[in-house]
Amino acid sequence: MTDAMATVKAARAPRAYTTRGLIDSMVTDFIEQHGDRNGGDDAAIIGGTGWLGNRGVTVIATNKGETLEERLQTNFGGPSPSGYRKAERLMRQAAKFNRPIITLINTSGAYPGREAEEGGQGEAIAHTLLTATQLPVPLIAVIIGEGGSGGALAFALGDRVWMSDQSMYSILSPEGFASILWKDSKRSAEAAAVMGLTPQDLLAKGVVERIIPDTGMQFGYDLRAALMPELDVLCAKEPAELIAQRRLRFRKF
Question: CoA carboxyltransferase C-terminal domain: from which residue to which, for each copy (predicted)?
């Protein structure tokens, strides 16, 4: 097994913590908010407000669920259109009340079901991306597991993008890449090696700014300690400067 495929397996493995447990160890007094204000409330997205030190923040996290019932409700972490619309609503709310945004990403991609496509999946992702480019508040994205395709990118258009050392970030799965390029999904390990999807590959290319060790149950506290000084730096910038630098960051790719 290649080092890249080992990274893929680690990214897909269950975490030592639940999504809610990670949020609760990262921020205090978290209050979850529900609904996209269009009739939907996707369980694959957990979002709300809390305190990071003495700073109010908005947290948006993908959720794969823990039990089989939860995994089915969340489509195994694949957000539906209502999930992206919920995230967009929370982003706009954060901008209104001048709250920085932290996203926690662990998804193989947007839910590909027929109902999602009929519900405007592509449009919902596009609107979320557009909203992120216009935010006058900082956004730090942290990929904690899988970061798959546009389904993950919708939450990762940030001023800073970090990855845990047990995560991956790619345009599609290695199996999908191998199926398209070589018509053989069994060559997924070979595909992973050439895709450059590991944290080390992406840090070297400047796609991400930092790799955070996943320390299990301690991880949320480590994130908290790393995020606080970074937000101090970003919050000191004028909104126009934040937006210009964020757009420039992604245009270089």
Answer: 1-233
